[in-house]
Amino acid sequence: MAGRKPGRNFLFVPGPTNVPDRILRAMHVTMEDHRSSDFPKLTLPLYEELKKIFKTKDGQVVIFPSSGTGAWEAAITNTRSPGDKVLIARFGQFSHLWGELARRHGLDVIVQEEEWGTGVSPERIEEALRTDKNHEIKGVLVVHNETATGVTSDVAAVRRALNAAKHPALLYVDGVSSIASIDFRMDDWGVDLAITGSQKGLMLPAGLGVLCASQKALAQMKDAKCTRAYFDLADHMRTNPSGYFPYTPALPLLYGLRESLVMLQEEGLDNVFARHRYLAEGTRAAVKAWGLKLCAKEPKWHSNTVSAIMVPQGFNGADVIDRAYRRYNLALGAGLSQMAGKLFRIGHLGDLNELMLLGGIAGAEMAMRDVGIEVVPGSGVAAAQEQFRAGQSTRETRMAAE
Ligand code: PLP
Questions:
Q1: Residue 197 pairs with which residues in a beta bridge?
Q2: What sign for the dihedral angle of Cα 176, 180, 184, 187?
Q3: Using a 6 Å cutoff on CB, does residue 93 contact ligand 1?
Q4: Average pLDDT, stretch 260-274?
Q5: Ligand 1 mean position, distance from CA 206 (Å)
Q6: Is the beta carbon of 64 within 6 A of some atom in ligand 1?
Q7: Angle, nearest 10°, between helix axes 93-104 and 68-77?
Q8: How far apart are CA 114 and CA 158, in angstroms?
Q9: Is 13 exposed, middle or buried (0-12, 13-18, 19+ CB in 10 A)?
Q10: Which residues pair with 111 in a beta bridge?
Q11: Cα–Cα distance, 278 to 271 (Å, whole number)
């Protein structure tokens, strides 16, 4: 049939990620009554297991039938009032959008501009908080992993900045492209509201927005005046403890989530993080061998879930992406907003191993050559292999020791 693309689609956008067959099968369920007496057997353990993913003891987990954006909105509207000041560092499309969402809800958003390719500056955050003598800033918003630029920020350092300034603002963290792929510690880092979506590290389709709130955040709900209805935490907190939802839940996704959490536990969260680091290092070795640069300016910003790769002057990243998709059935991530055309992204998160990634790297290499970017054929693939070889022994030794 004309237009048919034989073989597998190589999905290398940084979300949605590959959904493992086990999860696809787990989601293949007939519909059932979500008010039945059996339903809590499915739902109640999900909250407990998700707490392990967020690394929290006392945090309250809520699952919304939404994408990550819904969880952003829930975090803001349940804890803030119009006119409240919040501080956000902007260094990519997602940190831009979250601040914009807060602004649309009437918050007074103070934006700290950082160069795209860098991340949150804890020093600048601390400075802003120290000057805020009357504690008018009610929240600090941090995008842990900026998916648009492949930059990971140091959330623990932001917590230290809040503490050093003795500032009571809540710490809001977007973990959409970090949670369940890069180490995240809600309690240790004193995060008050953490959010994620189902379509990245959790290896599910999009459709679940997960929020985890600290007790300090929950205490602010009663005074929060932002309008909320569908995303009102109070409705969930009334129904969730007995295993039910305030509205019809996305049933297949919940079954998928149950399987995803089993899979993460079987591999072990620390091994999941180590695998992401190892695969990311392979990708970075390929980029270096191509003679190209990452958008992330320094190694301290390197993301282990997505690499944003700058194309040389005179080339358009969108052409590489289009060629990869049309000719090789490979989906690469686009440059967003001010990065449009300047880069392409390889998402290396979720259910992924070396050989899958080598396929993606080979495809990127071929597509780049097709549009005239002179990379040496096989150079990225060879460099990634060498990196894997070097990284394997340490990874295996560590896993054997556990
Ligand atoms: N935050 C980050 C870091 C993201 O990468 C994304 C989406 O890619 C979002 C928020 C928005 O999530 P969603 O598209 O699931 O609404």
A1: 209
A2: positive
A3: no
A4: 98
A5: 10
A6: no
A7: 40
A8: 15
A9: middle
A10: 88
A11: 10
